Structure formats: C-alpha cells, structure tokens
Amino acid sequence: MSSHNEQQETWPEQPPDRKEMSRRQFLTYTLGGATAFMGAGAILPMVRFAVDPILHKKGAGEFIKVAETSKINDQPQEFTFELKQQDGWYASTATLTAWIRKDEAGDIYALSPTCKHLGCTVGWNNDKAYPDEYHCPCHGARYTKLGKNLAVAPKPLDQYKIKIENGWVYLGDVVPNTEVKKEA
Ligand code: FES
User: Fold this and answer.
1) Which of 133, 142, 152 to mutate to test the pocket of ligand 1 (most atoms within 8 A of CB)?
2) Best probe residue, ligand 1, of 118, 133, 142, 157 (max atoms within 8 Å of C-beta)
3) Where are the domains of the chain?
4) What is the assigned CATH class of domain 64-183?
5) Is ligand 1 within 6 A of the CB of residue 94?
6) Is 162's C-beta closer than 6 angstroms to any atom of ligand 1?
7) How big, in percent rounded to 5, are the helix, strand and coil portions of the chain?
8) CB 115 within 8 A of CB 154
9) Sheet of 149-151: strands edge to edge?
10) pLDDT band, very low/low/confident/very high, at 27 (cuts 50, 70, 90)
C-alpha cells in the first residue's frame, strides 16, 4: 500500500490544462477582427483618394499630338500645343511651343524654345545679322538648326521626346539635346 502511494507521489505532474478560450473571448476577438476589417475597407479608399493626387503628378511622361508629318520640312517651324497638368490637387493647362524640323537624313526632331542662358524664348531666323539661326532677344544667344549653342548660352537647346504615329508627330517630355552630336 505504502509503495503504491510512493509511486503516486513520484509520478510526473499532469500537464497543465490547455488554456480554453472562453465564449466571451471568442466573440470579442471575432467581432473585433470583423470590425477592423470592415473599417479598413471603408477608410483605405478614402485615404487613397486623398493621397493619390500627391503621388501621381499627371502630365509628365505623356505624349501630345502636335503636327502632321506631311507638314514638316527642312525648315524649323513653330508649333504650339497644350499640356494638361495635375500637380497634387492643382489642375492647369500649359501652352508649350516646339520648333519642329526634318534633318538631312529625314528624321524629325523638335527643339524647345527655352534659351539655355537665362530662359527667354528663342526664335528662328529672327536676327538679320545671323540668318538661319535661332536667336534669343534677351542677351543675344545664338543656336544652329540642330540647337547647338554658338554664343552666350552655355548649352544646346533642349529637345522634346518624339513619337511618330499614323502620320502625326507626338511630343513628350523635354530632354537634353542629342541632335547636336549628329552634327559633329
Ligand atoms: S536668356 Fe537668352 S541670351 Fe540670355
């Protein structure tokens, strides 16, 4: 008898009872989770709506239909076009100008009219003393047909990204000039 008692005392303790989740806890967790899920479903679209215009600056990277390719020849011609911009919640329309021309190889390119000296607007063939050049009226900068800087300005005229589709010239972002290299 006594040996049986001793054996009982030396047995390892029974594993503790598994923690049971009470019915109240279960309901609390379930309802809490469902409420959080539904709340996120309602709030996230509102947050996205509020923040989206900040994250996406519209206008950049787009191409605008500007001119028919049949109208482009080897003389620079001025074309204006409108770019709709969305900066945050601010919507605006910018009127842009490009000087478009076909080079000797027949490739079409478009130069920005913004002078690389201090940002005035250049014109083509507008200084009788220097025919067949772009001229800036502000401080006398001059550029070749391809936009190469000849005087005053430190850099060539920028150019637009260009895309030709279905007989139309489309212009995109303004980028540094690559036409001048063809001249060299
Ligand atoms: S801004 Fe064109 S020459 Fe100065």
Assistant:
1) 152
2) 118
3) 18-55, 64-183
4) mainly beta
5) no
6) no
7) 25, 35, 40
8) no
9) 123-124, 134-135, 142-143, 149-151
10) confident
117 lines ligand 1 (CB under 6 A): yes
* Least confident among 52-61, 132-141, 151-160: 52-61
Q: Is 110 in the pocket of ligand 1 (CB under 6 A)?
A: no
* Cβ(141) – ligand 1 distance below 6 Å: yes
123 burial (CB, 10 Å; 0-12 / 13-18 / 19+) is middle
CA 184/CA 175 separation, integer angstroms: 19
- Tokens standing for residue 67: 């001119």
Q: Is the pTM of this model over 0.90?
A: no
Would you call 129 helix, strand, or coil by DSSP? Answer: coil
